[in-house]
């Protein structure tokens, strides 16, 4: 049974999604709510929980190559792994765990498959609604609140409690805005350097939940190569689709969205170097050198080396016969043959 391995880093979410007939998010969350004792603790109704989770899952766009319900399930599975890290687990309340899992599951709900600059320059109604600030993340949060209220999942809890849950969900989901990456990295670095994190305090626990969600959201490069590579191809395909739309509307093509110029290896190496590595090195500093943190950093370094090798193969092939810079099947085959177990 795959669910018995849900706490393992090499969990294959793509296989799980196939085995559950595209119901990975609902199945995973029902299981995790049980595992963590949340059904009992919050006296949740199983049918209502299931109905809420189906609403969330169906609000993701299955047409998106990347920002779909499988990404949400993947982020939730990573979050579950992070919540079990002793440095964090020893302090977490049932409320923290429920918030962490719910935020992970819903953090990209109703994602349109294009980024914030695209929504702003096409004058999308969401951009004006949220005044060009964390447009997508605000939408993911407010959509989640709408579904929570409609499902009445938490309707039996005191009003103050549900209000607090809604606010904290917002604060967690808004932390996934990549434009705020430096703000969070600087705060985390300062806490680690000063050794002043007090996880007995709700505020510090909430901050580390924000960091855990940020890690879970961008953990693809820290997964096994076969899984990591699929995510990379999917996210770049979504970028390229946006570039095609921009071309069609005669708009300037956004960075990373030009299939002719921005190749998958170059996009991935940049992402790993400037976004992923700095965050995960700090996360490892927080957790201490746990098997999970070591494992993630090892995958990250190995995967980066693979993309580098693909980039070099690409460059040499485009020099030889001036190709468009896309990786060929034979190059991919060579890389897989070189792969060490």
Describe this protein's structure.
The protein is mostly helical. It folds into two domains: 1-217, 3'5'-cyclic nucleotide phosphodiesterase, catalytic domain (Catalytic domain of cyclic nucleotide phosphodiesterase 4b2b), CATH 1.10.1300.10; 222-341, Catalytic domain of cyclic nucleotide phosphodiesterase 4b2b (Orthogonal Bundle). It contains 17 helices and no strands. It has helices at residues 13-19, 24-35, 38-41, 46-59, 69-83, 86-89, 94-106, 116-121, 125-129, 135-151, 159-174, 181-194, 202-217, 225-248, 264-287, 291-321, 329-338. Helix 2 runs parallel beside helix 5 (69-83), helix 2 (24-35) runs antiparallel to helix 7 and helix 11 crosses helix 13. Mean pLDDT is 94; it is low at 325-341. Residues 317-334 have a biased composition (Polar residues). It comes from Nyctibius grandis. Zn(2+) 1 binds at residues 71, 107-108, 217. Its cofactor is a divalent metal cation.
